[in-house]
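Q: What would this complex look like in 3D?
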Amino acid sequence: MRFWSKYSRIMQQKNMPLCVGLDTAVEMLPTMLKERATTDAAITDALLEFNRAIIEATHDVTAAYKLNLAFYEQYGAAGWLAFEKTLAYVPDDCLIIADAKRGDIGNTSKAYAKAFFERYACDALTVAPYMGKDSVLPFLEYTDNMTFVLALTSNAGSADFQRLHASDFSGESSKEKSAQELYKHVIQSSLSWLPEPSARNCGFVVGATHPAELAAIRTMIPNEMLLIPGIGAQGGDLASTLRANNGAPCLINSSRAIIYASAGKDFAEAARKAAENFLNG
Amino acid sequence: MRFWSKYSRIMQQKNMPLCVGLDTAVEMLPTMLKERATTDAAITDALLEFNRAIIEATHDVTAAYKLNLAFYEQYGAAGWLAFEKTLAYVPDDCLIIADAKRGDIGNTSKAYAKAFFERYACDALTVAPYMGKDSVLPFLEYTDNMTFVLALTSNAGSADFQRLHASDFSGESSKEKSAQELYKHVIQSSLSWLPEPSARNCGFVVGATHPAELAAIRTMIPNEMLLIPGIGAQGGDLASTLRANNGAPCLINSSRAIIYASAGKDFAEAARKAAENFLNG
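A: Here is my prediction, written as C-alpha cells for the whole assembly.
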C-alpha cells in the first residue's frame, strides 16, 4: 500500500511524525507578500510563494503537509490554483494530505475521491462520516491512499454529537450495535467497510485535545494510522499526546505555530526552526 | 430575513418548490459540448454554456438552483471558475444553494461561510453537523442566509449513524439529552444554536426516500425550511413527499431528471419541459 510504504520510509529517514498544516491565508502572510495580493492572479502568486518558501525550508524535517481546502476556497478559483500548484512543490519524501472533510452520496463522493486521489494525486484525504457507508466507501476503494475519517475532532463541538452514547435499537439483532459513544461506532463501522482490510487504508482524525480518549482509542485500534490535530493554538499538548499514542503510527499536525512563527522576512527560517524544535518543544 | 422574503416572493409568483440541481459533469454533457471540453479553459466554457442554457430555459418555473461543489471541484480551478461564473446567470427570482456539505473547526468554518455567503453571495448552503456547534455556528451567524444542516440524508448510508439511538449519559443533568435518533438530536441542537431564533435561518436536509420520517419531522418542526433531495434516480416519490411535508416550506430538488432530460441539441427545451411537468409528474 503506497501510503504505508511512503510513511515507513519517511519515518526511517526523519523519525519525525510532524505534519505541517498549510493553512495559508492572505491576511496572515508576511507584509511584503500580503501587500502584493491585490488581484486574483496576485493572490494565487502570493499564497504560492509563501507555501513554496515554507516547503523548501521545512521539507527535510517534515513528514507530511496538510492543506485545508477552506483556506484556499475562500479565494475561489484563485485559491484553487494556489492549492493545485502548491502540490508540485512538495517533494517525494513528504506525504500530502488534503484536509477537505468531504462526504456526500455515493456518486458525489466518487467525484471527490477522483479529484483528490487521481487528479491531484494526494496521498491522503480527510472525510466526514455523517452520511454513512456509501459516502465513505468511494474513498476507501483507493487502497493506495489513506482516508482519514473524522472520529473525535479537536474542537469543543466534538462533545455535541461525537460523544453521544448511541446504539441501534432497530430490533434486527444481527445489526445491533452496543451502546457506546458515536465516535467509536464511526471507527468500528468505517473499518468494517474496508474493501481490502489488509490494505489498512482507513485512518482516523483524533484531536490532541482529548489525551484520555486517544489512549482508549489506541487500545481499540493499536495499529491504525491517526491524524492528530489540535496541538498548540487549540490547546493540545505534545507530551501527553505522544504518551497517549503509545508509539503507534500517526501524523501530528501543527499549522499556525510553524508557518506563522514569524511575520517578517525571516518567516521561512523561523518556520524551519519551529519545525526542527517541534519534538523538543 | 432575506432568504425567507425571497422564498415567499418566489412561491407567490411561481407556486413551485422545484430546486434544479446543476450537477454538471463533462461526461454527461450533450455531445457537441462534451467534444469541445478538451482543455481546462474549454471545460470551464462547456460547463458554463450548459448551465447558462439550462438556467435560461427553466428559471421562470424554478424556485432555486443547487450547485453541488463536488461536480465542479473534480475539474479543479477550471471547475471553480465555472461555478463562480454560473452564479451570475441565475436571475434574482431564483434562490442559489451551494451544496457544499462543509463543516470544520470554528475558524475554518468561518472561512467557508465567508466564501459562500459573502464572496459568492449564495442564498443558502448545506452544512455537515458531525463536528458540532462551533463548526455550524459560523454559518448560522449569517442570518440573512439559510443554512441547511444535514439531518436525515437520502442515501442508504443514512441508516449507519443518523438513525442510531443516542443519548447523553454524561451525568450533567442540565445537558442530558433523551434517547432518540441522532438526526433528531442534530435538528434540536442546531435550532438551539441559532443566534437570533426569530430569523429562522436554520433549515435541514431530509431525503425524499424517507417519507414516514419526513412526516414525523414535520410534527417536530412544522414551520422550518427543508431541502428535500432524492426524488427520481435515488428512489424518492414526489406524491408521498408532498403528502408527508404537509404544505410546509420546502425546496424539492431534482437534478439528473431535469438537466439531462435529453442528451441531444434540444437539451435545454427538454429540461424546460421536465421542469414544467415536475409537479404534474
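A: To summarize the key features: The beta strands of chain A are 18-21, 64-68, 95-102, 124-127, 146-152, 165-167, 180-181, 202-206, 226-228, 250-254. The mean pLDDT of chain A is 94.
Q: Very helpful, thank you.
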